[in-house]
Design brief:
By secondary structure, the chain is α+β, with helices and mostly antiparallel strands. Helix content is 48%, strand content 15%. It has 9 helices and 14 strands. The strands form 4 sheets. Strands 8-7-6-11-4-5-10-9 form an 8-stranded antiparallel β-sheet, with no helix packed on it. A two-stranded antiparallel ribbon has the order 1-2. It is rod-shaped and about 145 Å long.
Length: 425
């Protein structure tokens, strides 16, 4: 079979071009360190590599998010630790003043110290990270703890009629719902009343209604020193018969004469719970994503450990308790101190439980961080196996390609027939 010179030349050029292209590809791979530079290099591997990159980016983002939230958790743990220490100091203080060796002067000094502990507790409950409040749930721009006014208008109910009383008001803070019920009709000093501190389930014995009374049930909860102040209103006197309107029998102006207010039996005066410190956040917690569809609560709310929780047993209002203890100290009331010792233990337990819960969340987040790091490393290793270049093999391939290229050039020079000029030389 006859092969023309042109066919030989085209074959030689094609072979040299293929060898050059193969060497160029190897050179690019060695320069970049990647085996797969474009989709055509390995369509299946390139697709898998893209999936791995997406997973690596996702795991890395989750780790950054978790790591940034550790500042929040560190602040929460620090404030909970401080509050736990404050409660321990409060307990030590109360135990020392509930003993026989304490007197009015030492209790007064202890009451002033307890006020400083309450102030420190209040500040810790309103702790912030930057501009965000730590213990306010998801309402992070809302201050969680707010002080209430000591004055509250009284609400009255008589039969089917109810409304706000203009003749009475309450002074004092308490988390109890008090009801003052008139048990014997009459004016101040003659009418009798009884008190309920649990919304009407139990009642105290009868007492005489005075312009100022302390609202408490001696057989019920310890007194929070809430006072009911009654301003006896006056009614116009009846105009005397046969006298011109507005004048008395002597022709003088008929001025209204004060008449005592009669408090009817069955009249009820209500005190709605008005604790010294109130929670203004919400019960929802900030959540952080730790995996595909997995959320973890990042914080705890002040309502979880400083205030009573429905359905969680004997939880107490920590601030209401501390203010009650302060009043007992200032009033030199040893009996009230002893009655609240169990509640003090419960308050400390609530804060300790919050610390334990926060510690458990932190440990779980650290475990999540570790697992995410391991998964990211695994995906990175798989990605490396797909697209990274084996340099040892690349060097061998480059040497073989170089040898093939040189051999192709050498054989090409021999294969092409000499021209007429070569013979003339």
């Amino acid at each position: 079979m006859r092969v023309t010179d042109l066919t030989k030349q085209n074959a030689i050029l094609r072979n040299i071009s293929n060898n050059s292209e193969r060497m160029q590809t190897l050179q690019n791979n060695m320069a970049s360190g990647k085996r797969v530079a474009k989709l055509s290099d390995d369509p299946v591997g390139a697709t898998m590599a893209q999936d791995f990159r997406t997973s690596i980016s996702y795991f890395s983002t989750l780790q950054r998010n978790l790591e940034s939230n550790f500042v929040w958790m560190d602040r929460s743990e620090a404030e909970l630790t401080l509050m736990s220490d404050l409660m321990q100091r409060s307990k030590t203080l109360i135990l020392s003043q509930a003993s026989d060796t304490a007197d009015a002067s030492t209790r007064k000094v202890s009451g002033e110290e307890l006020q400083s502990l309450i102030d420190a507790m209040y500040q810790a409950g309103n702790a912030k990270v930057g501009k965000l409040f730590v213990f306010s749930g998801t309402k992070t721009f809302t201050q969680p703890l707010v002080k209430n006014d000591v004055v509250q208008p009284a609400m009255v109910k008589f039969g089917q009629a109810a409304g706000q009383a203009d003749f009475a008001r309450f002074e004092g803070n308490s988390g109890n719902r008090y009801i003052v019920r008139i048990t014997k009709s009459g004016e101040l000093g003659k009418a009798h009343y009884s008190v309920s501190d649990d919304g009407g389930r139990s009642w105290s014995g009868d007492r005489t209604l005075l312009p100022q009374i302390e609202v408490f049930n001696s057989d019920g909860k310890p007194s929070d020193k809430v006072k009911l102040l009654i301003n006896e209103t006056s009614k116009p006197a009846v105009v005397q018969e046969n006298a011109p309107e507005g004048l008395n029998s002597e022709g003088a102006v008929n001025e209204p004469q004060p008449q005592p207010m009669i408090f009817p039996e069955g009249l009820e005066i209500y005190y709605e719970p008005n604790p010294p410190i109130e929670y203004k956040g919400n019960p929802e917690k900030r959540m952080v994503e730790t995996g595909e569809g997995t959320l973890m609560p990042l914080n705890t709310t002040a309502s979880d450990f400083l205030f009573p929780l429905p359905g969680k047993g004997k939880t107490v209002d920590v601030f209401n308790l501390l203010f009650g203890l302060k009043r007992a100290l200032m009033d030199n009331d040893r009996e009230a101190l002893e009655m609240r010792l169990d509640q003090l233990d419960q308050a400390s337990e609530q804060i300790l439980q919050a610390r334990a819960s926060m510690g458990a969340v932190r440990r779980e987040m650290e475990d999540r961080m570790k697992k995410l790091g391991e998964r990211e490393f695994s995906k990175t290793s798989q990605l490396s196996e797909i697209e990274d270049l084996d340099f040892a093999q690349a060097v061998v391939d480059m040497n073989m390609s170089d040898a093939r290229h040189k051999a192709a050039l050498d054989t090409s020079a021999r294969l092409i027939q000499p021209s007429l000029l070569n013979f003339l030389r």
